[in-house]
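Example record for the data management plan.
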Amino acid sequence: MAYPKKQKTAIVSHILPPSPSGQAVVLYRLLKGLPREECCLISRQNYVDSSSPDTISTQKLPVSYHYLPPVYQLPLIPKYNMDIVGLWINTPWVIYRRARQIQRTLLNEGCDLLIACSGDMYDIPAGCLASQMAKVPFVAYMFDDYAYQWIGAFRPISVWLEREMAKRAAGIIVPNEYLQEAYARRYGFKSMLVRNPTPLYDLDDLDKAERVFAKEAVNIVYAGAVYHANDDALRNLVEAIQRMGREDIRFHIYTSQTERELKERGVAGPRVICHSHISETEIPKVLRQADILFLPLAFSSPIPEVIRTSAPGKMAEYLSVARPILVHAPSDSFCSWFFNKHGCGVVVDQYDPALLAEQIELILASKEMQKRLGERARKVSEEFFRVEEAQRAFVEGIQTVLGRKGNNLS
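Corresponding structural encoding:
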């Protein structure tokens, strides 16, 4: 893959390869093979120390990593609204101090462009300010809807910060059409579409892997974190399995969370099996052996705007292994729209465990349906989620911004 020559891009993200996170894996796939002299990575996590992080998903990239030490903040006091006052004091201070840290790295590394990723409250506004200090273009990489990721007292701040960032950014990167449309509606410009990619795994090789599930069982698999963005949909699946009354069904969850943490979210039961996180190289073998891959998004969440525009990293992984996919997500979400539009999975867009149980039975009852869904999923993966295509879109976006030599979207 040919990347821009003699130009250096700095990327700020709260999480980076080799951490076990969808965002870190996407960055790894986009940047893998990038020459060391063309990129550097910056994070509030200490990746400079090779012992971090605790769990490894991919590998460290062969580029320089830079650590952003914590910035001192006033303690928040939840009394007489003092937490809100403290937040409004802390926010500009942390943004400024982090921007100064990032600016030093940009100047020391001789960077020509700064990309800051969502997922942290301060990375994007601090990155925007640092780019102005260092006089380099700034691009925001929105893995999720930044303004609406945050709730409570953080929400009005994040909405304001995003609006100010949009006035100054040279570009915005998004992973799907729904988020692209959201930013077009808010700010009147078209963002760059870079899908969360996946390798096209060799299915014959995956089929030769050692069995991890009992063949006589029906194995439903979910891989990823369990939290407020999907926990009610996962609880629905647990209830649906109980309603079915089938002793042969097993619901396997692969996550870095503990079984106790899943129980605290109500995702537990006699048919639920919690597995520890496994590496990026191992997960396709597990997904390929599933009878059904489950893709959940919350129906009741404090961040419905984020749910609507979410493109989970596991979505492309599921499609690539050519297995039946069951989407359980709100009808107005990108996931429901995409799978309905392309016919690459079964969509249950109502909060109804009985309907979910019914659709599971329909999938299991028809080998022909399973084969058709798997083949269609693989075809969609090949059409939309190739790593090479995502790299091309990413590089073209960088080249466009650097060629424009401006630092705004107008």
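Summary line stored alongside the record: The chain has two domains: 9-197+387-404, 203-384.
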